Amino acid sequence: MHRRNSGPVTLPELRSWIAQPRAAVVVLDRSDGIRWCNDAFATAHNAIAGDLVGKNLVVLLPEKVLEERRKLWAPLHARGERVEYIQVFGGQRVHTTGATLEPSVLGEGLFVFLLLPVAEDAPAENTPVASSALLAEYSLLSRAELRVLHAFAQGLSREEIAESQHRSLHTVQIHLKSIYSKLGIHREVELALKLGRSGIGAFTVEEWERIVQSVPAKDPSNRSP
């Protein structure tokens, strides 16, 4: 992971961000307008970098997701403090850093964000996890189903899921059947491919549990701690 600095990002630091393999970088104004981005950022949105300049993030992100991001960015916008969080971007688990951009680089009032893939086994520790984009697609699932979903995304078999979550195999199969129904999926391979694109499996069990705990309990008969 990159070395943590503080204060505005200078031109040399911006160049070091851009030079990192697989790093996505975007420069935003205070209204979430895109002033500049690299090809990695644009590709993740199925776009060309030049075409995104001048557009607003609202055309790329659902409003609920953007609201969550704005809350995470509050210390940055209010006090110029660097912010960090974990999210899924381009189907990968990434560590995101946001900072003010030195005015001499591209002008006043701009913010730059570095999105850098991190190893699957690298813990987020106390770093916030942005979950709105993930949970929007799986909003119908219960907490227990989300835990099974994550374990399935990590490649565990039904038997391994049952053992790791201290559930019976029958219970796991019931959860999977419910997941299939709620997501409109009919075959195991469909679920595997869907989750492979989502990046869910890249989250550690601890990170995913923090996400699960943010979901209101839906099934009174299946309350989770």
Salient structural properties:
five-stranded antiparallel β-sheet; single chain; elongated; 5 strands; alpha+beta
State the gist of this model.
This protein is α+β, with helices and mostly antiparallel strands.
Output the structural class.
alpha+beta
Q: Kindly report the spatial arrangement of strands forming the biggest sheet.
A: 2-1-5-4-3
Largest sheet, strands/sense/barrel: 5 strands, antiparallel
Low-confidence stretches: 220-225
Radius of gyration: 19 Å
Element string (H = helix, E = strand):
HEEHHHEEHEHHHHHH
Q: Tally the helices.
A: 11
Q: How many beta-strand elements?
A: 5
Quote the average pLDDT.
88
Shape: elongated
What percent of residues adopt helix (DSSP H or I)?
40-55%
N→C terminal distance: 32 Å
The fraction of residues in strands falls at 15-25%
Outline the secondary-structure elements:
Layout: H1 11-19, E1 24-29, E2 34-37, H2 39-44, H3 49-52, H4 63-79, E3 83-89, E4 92-100, H5 103-106, E5 110-117, H6 132-137, H7 143-153, H8 158-164, H9 169-183, H10 188-198, H11 205-213
Antiparallel strand pairs: 1-2, 1-5, 3-4, 4-5
How would you characterize the overall build of this protein?
The two termini are 32 Å apart. The chain has helices spanning 11-19, 39-44, 49-52, 63-79, 103-106, 132-137, 143-153, 158-164, 169-183, 188-198, 205-213; strands at residues 24-29, 34-37, 83-89, 92-100, 110-117. It is elongated. It is of the alpha+beta class and 225 residues long. Residues 220-225 have low confidence and may be disordered. The protein has 11 helices and 5 strands.
